[in-house]
Design brief:
By secondary structure, the chain is an alpha/beta fold. The protein has 13 helices and 22 strands. Helices cover 32% and strands 21% of the residues. It binds flavin-adenine dinucleotide.
Length: 428
């Protein structure tokens, strides 16, 4: 069903709305909210049966809120969601990743080794930024040695944070990424719940994938399974994974510079393997961080017992996350359980209740976690942002003006795009 105020069916509704927004994730909801504030008529069409996109809190699997997508509210002192979370009484906990446990396979690193890793980490961050300011090379070129401790540190800058291995990440693009920009807050009730509460009064037509956007004549026509929407402009917030898979057809076809931009920003993958136990916090304390560094990039990081819940949240990223996603949930949970056994002791098996695995890799409306520019394509974000014929606009985490890859960055992108569109629509 199309939402209130929009006619369903084969006939279009010329002039009925100013702007059609494709996607009800953080970016689309913020764009709609801003356009409404500016007095524009909008409708959001969403392919899924829910709003929030990659901001999604699952309350069913464990009986308490678990964020399948974004969880940390990054750059909290400047993030548009922070005042809302406070106003609406969400439970916030500051959490920066500081390794309380580091394992090389089954061998636990000493406190000195962990301190050394923290020092190397600061150094690597500076080195990647230095490379990025000079050239659009792979972030891995900033790593001189490749000892096991260097690899452990690289894991946090690559797969666990940027969602790609460092050799697949442009060092220049690294400078735009906001996935670990402090202050970082975790939200007990879920980041997805917060985004859903923000979007609850925005007119969204659920289960309405946009199949084709026609922009060759006047305005735009957006074809859905329920009919055609006509508007002065549209904002596309689909992930670059969805765009690359050509789930939306464009008529006229996308120009080569837009196709290059999409190809330069492939989706990276961060996947979570939450494991629930019957015993309250053991071995590590609530909010502590543990990394198990394995040979051949099969690394896993655990956020321990967030908010004192009986949950270890395993994270895998980059190439290894794609590999586990192809292998399936059972294999992923087994892999995480094996790692828990070697870190927390074999007793952990006795207390294991159940595990799960996030499936963003195969989710047809995401096809990955978030986008990272490949070496040589740092300019791709600019190309992705650039509108077509001043009528088809693009927004979302990959277009974010700051803190790319994040939910807060997606919101900013939606707001800024809405302001630009509002000016153009006024002139039209
Ligand atoms: C595992 C994981 C962990 C993450 N951790 C964090 C974190 O801790 N902190 C953080 O800030 N960020 C994190 N992120 C990133 C964050 O979730 C995203 O950057 C943000 O939610 C993206 O918002 P968006 O609006 O750009 O895109 P989306 O949320 O993907 O919204 C786009 C919407 O468009 C819809 N859509 C797509 N195509 C069509 C179509 N053809 N027709 C209609 N609708 C369509 C989709 O269904 C979706 O709802 C994480 C992401 C993942 C996957």
């Amino acid at each position: 069903m199309l939402g209130a105020g929009i006619c369903a069916g084969a006939q279009s509704v010329p002039g009925d709305v100013d702007v059609v927004i494709i996607g009800a994730g953080s970016s689309g909801l913020n764009a709609a909210h801003r356009l409404q504030q500016l007095g524009k008529k909008v409708v959001v069409i969403e392919a899924r049966g829910r709003i929030g996109g990659r901001a999604y809190t699952d309350t069913e699997t464990f009986g308490f809120p678990f964020d399948r997508g974004c969880a940390w509210l990054h750059k909290a002192d400047d993030n548009p969601y922070t005042p809302l979370a406070k106003q609406w009484g969400y439970t916030l906990q500051e959490h920066d990743t500081t390794l309380e446990g580091l394992y090389f396979r089954d061998r636990e690193a000493s406190a000195e080794m962990r301190q050394l890793s923290a020092r190397i980490e600061m150094g690597l961050d500076t080195k990647i930024a230095k490379v990025g300011r000079k050239k659009d090379a792979a972030a891995s070129t900033a790593m001189r040695k490749k000892s096991e401790i260097d690899e452990a540190v690289a894991t946090f800058h690559g797969p666990m944070s940027s969602a790609v291995d460092l050799d697949e990440l442009s060092a220049k693009d690294y400078l735009t990424i906001g996935t670990d920009v402090p202050p970082n807050l975790l939200i007990k009730e879920g980041y997805g719940s917060l985004v859903a509460q923000f979007g609850k009064d925005i007119p969204v037509s659920l289960n309405s994938p946009a199949r084709r956007i026609r922009y060759g004549g006047n305005g735009v026509q957006v074809d859905t399974d329920h009919g055609t929407l006509t508007a002065k402009a549209c904002i596309v917030t689909s992930s670059t994974g969805v765009l690359a898979a050509e789930k939306i057809r464009f008529d006229p076809p996308l120009p080569p510079w837009k196709e290059d931009a999409i190809a330069g920003l492939p989706m990276g993958l961060l996947a979570k393997i939450p494991l629930q136990f019957s015993k309250p916090e053991f071995r590590y304390q609530a909010f502590q961080d543990v990394l198990r560094e394995n040979i051949g990039k099969r690394d896993i990081y655990f956020l321990c017992w967030p908010f004192h819940l009986n949950l270890l949240v395993g994270f895998v990223g980059g190439d290894f996350a794609w590999e586990l996603s192809a292998a399936g949930e059972e294999e992923a949970v087994d892999f995480a359980k094996n790692s828990v056994r070697s870190i927390f002791g074999s007793d952990a098996d006795k207390y294991f209740v159940k595990g799960s695995f996030t499936k963003w890799a195969s989710d047809p409306w995401a096809l990955g976690a978030y986008a990272a520019a490949i070496p040589g394509s740092a300019g791709a974000r600019e190309g992705l942002r650039r509108p077509l014929a001043d009528r088809v606009f693009f927004a979302g985490e990959a277009c974010a003006p700051r803190w790319t890859q994040t939910c807060g960055g997606a919101a900013l992108s939606g707001i800024e795009t809405a302001e630009l569109v509002a000016k153009l629509v006024k002139q039209a």
